[in-house]
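Lab manual, section 2.4: Encoding a predicted structure.

Procedure: take the sequence of the chain (245 residues), apply the prediction step described in section 2.3, and record the output as structure tokens. A sample record is shown.
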Amino acid sequence: MMISGWNSRYREILKEFNYDKRKDTDSATLLESILGEENHLKKIQNLIQNQNVFVVGAGPSLSNAIPVLKQFKKTVKIVADSAVKPLIENGIKSDIIVTDLDGDEKTFRKIGKSKTYFVVHAHGDNISKLSLIEYFKNCIGTTQTKPFGKIQNFGGFTDGDRAVFLASYFNAKKIILFGMDFGKRIGKFSNTKPFDRKTKLKKLRKGKSLLEWLALKTRSELFTTSSPISGFKKIPYQNLDIIIT
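Recorded output:
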């Protein structure tokens, strides 16, 4: 079941970014056809439900967050696409990766057969990349359009905010954001080409607005160690021990 009101948010996205709904549907249809038969939803639910969850993005503050994340090895980490590589390079495991496959392909292939769960998003611009999922042992598919078959829709737009929607969908107890800045700067770990900068910043603004909308609906407690977001409590790193007890 989709989050109530998502269809209206999706129509806004189509209009604001001039996307083609048919291409989104075609991409989701292809992804559904190449996904394995195993259903990983229950396992993902068990990881998230009633747990404290870290959601990690590739924003400018990720560099400062990495030493902190190292201290919380047992806390569930849902990691957005481009943040995966720097975390791995620092010995930090991703429990769930939310990706539209724009991240580092070599890294994805390297960990694809591990216990990490990949939540792969299909949209009109990544049809050519969907074959990458053949390298992923544990994978589910998502779409922005109507869910069907093996394809889910948890809500969200960018990899970062989709990770938060995922945690909320499965009723995380507390969701704490790292490297999720949604500002006017693009993090050095983000896989963004110079000519895509304007579009990237526009996507970040949309992602932030969707999180503010989610904050009005979710049952999870919301926190951020990054830039302020309406509906999320801003906390310093030194208070994390208190928050996740």
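Check your result against the sample. The mean pLDDT is 94.
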